[in-house]
Specification:
Chain lengths: 230, 248
């Protein structure tokens, strides 16, 4: 009896948590990049600015796959000759053998909202969940398609609620990794319940401290995609 | 100017009130020690002490306020000095201070420098008088030479540093907008991340080329081996998925 009640109780408390807006499901994000030759300067500065001063910065080496799930084609979409935008799901795991016991991570990222000029950061929905390695099989059976994959290797810093990553993006997970560009990707993010605008302000202040080494901005990659790339 | 004076007056009035409070508190303490020393207990004693310290704290807070005029810039000038007892003074100090003279407030009425400082000054003066004019001018010239030399060194160093920092600012480009865009597009949409791996877990791939496929129909045709890719018939997909154990 009680075991039957538990899922409903959990559901209730989850719904209640949603209602009172305490679930950190919004990601406040600023992005930028730094050239390989200058990354040591940035790391040095971050080491001074962030919380984990006395220890070396945390390093990570992850592998991420992005799956897409497309809505089934119906008559209307067939007529329009255009499929509705697919749902994107990301699966990430650590490449580090020491982390082999760590779960995989499944992540959904919503559409970025840029807001007006007054809003200091980009905001997007973000849901994370830990899962077992069979998630890939599961998604495949669900009809998800693998869209792309990459390896990411870099450093993680913390400053209060803020998370700062400086990472190199590599194509695929071959042994002879080739970096995607001559720069490191720099991301400053906070996961918070919606409407936490004070957080965004903190992030703006922190981003100011990293200028002119890195220009952290709110970048809408969706809009970038419409610009022809080389 | 008038405003400043008014300001000052107000400030002095405020501090006088606070000082009076402090005086009363100290007076009560003295009274207690003098007359109630047999019955007084520690808690009351400490309470009185706390009272005095709070008054002191209030006073120092007032002095530390931003709009407080800098009273250290003001000079206190003794207008009238007399060894005879002063009736007015006795009255306002409640009989504690009969005269305003050097014996009572030596620091305020000092006209000579500190004895130690005076001694040192005398020593230096004696030394200065001992050397001849010639030697003095020689020393002066030498000193001047050293000072100008050091000055030159500093200006040279400053110029060098300025040049260097200017150079550095001009030269170092630390980030590249183009690279940012490339990374953004790759991580966000997979643009530039071609699929050419052989990872066994991920079987669904285009035979090379870009990861993005514009049309699901095309996609299904290109990988006929995958049953799950028959996207248009979503119901069938669901049935199939249900039959398979997700954690097999």
């Amino acid at each position: 009896m009680s075991s039957e009640n538990q899922p409903t109780a959990a559901m209730d408390s989850l719904l209640q948590a949603l209602q009172v807006n305490i679930i950190p499901n919004q990601e406040y994000l600023l992005q930028g990049s730094i050239l390989d030759t200058q990354v040591q300067r940035l790391l040095h500065r971050l080491k001074g600015l962030c919380d984990n001063v006395e220890t070396a910065p945390e390093q990570f080496f992850d592998y991420e796959v992005c799956f897409s799930l497309r809505a089934p084609m119906n008559e209307q979409t067939l007529q329009m000759q255009q499929a509705p935008p697919p749902l994107l799901l990301r699966v990430r795991r650590s490449n580090d053998p020491a982390d082999s016991h760590m779960p995989f991570q499944l992540r959904y990222i919503g559409n970025p909202e840029l807001g007006d000029a007054k809003r200091p950061t980009l905001v997007r929905a973000s849901f994370d969940i830990s899962c077992s390695p069979s998630i890939i099989d599961f998604l495949t059976e669900m009809g998800c398609r693998m869209e792309f994959e990459y390896t990411v290797k870099g450093y993680l810093f913390r400053k209060g609620r803020m998370k700062i990553t400086v990472s190199k993006i590599f194509k695929a997970m071959n042994m002879n990794q080739e970096p995607l560009s001559q720069s490191y990707l720099v991301e400053l993010s906070v996961l918070a319940p919606s409407g936490s605008d004070a957080v965004a302000e903190d992030m703006r202040v922190f981003a100011e401290k990293l200028k002119p080494l890195v220009i952290l901005e709110k970048i809408d990659y969706k809009r970038l995609a419409t610009v022809p790339y080389d | 100017m008038q405003r400043d004076e008014k300001h000052m007056e107000m400030f002095i009035e405020n501090s006088l009130i606070k000082l009076k409070d402090l005086k009363v508190a100290i007076g009560q303490m003295c009274h207690k020690i003098e007359f109630e020393y047999e019955t007084i207990n520690w808690p009351t004693f400490l309470d009185n002490f706390a009272l005095i310290s709070s008054h002191l704290a209030g006073l120092s807070k007032l002095l530390a306020l931003e709009y407080t005029p800098p009273i250290r810039n003001l000079a206190v000038l003794p207008l009238h000095l007399s060894p005879d007892p002063d009736e007015h003074l006795i009255q306002i100090t409640e009989g504690r201070l009969p005269t305003f003279a050097a014996e009572v407030v030596p620091d305020y009425l000092r006209t000579k420098p500190d004895p130690a400082a005076e001694n040192r000054m005398n020593l230096h003066e004696a030394k200065a008088n001992a050397i001849t004019n010639d030697a003095a001018s020689k020393q002066e010239a030498q000193f001047k030479k050293i000072v100008t030399h050091i000055g030159e060194l500093i200006t040279k160093m400053k110029e060098e540093w300025e040049m260097e920092s200017l150079h550095r600012n001009l030269r170092t480009e630390t980030c590249n907008q183009n690279d940012t865009q490339i990374l953004m597009k790759a991580v966000g949409m997979g643009i530039g991340l071609s699929l050419k791996t052989n990872t066994p877990a991920m079987l669904m791939q285009q035979p090379g080329g870009m990861a993005r496929v514009p049309n699901p129909v095309q996609m299904a045709a290109s990988s006929p081996g995958m049953q799950m890719n028959k996207m248009p018939s979503s119901i069938k997909t669901n049935i199939k998925a249900a039959n398979l154990h997700p954690y097999r």
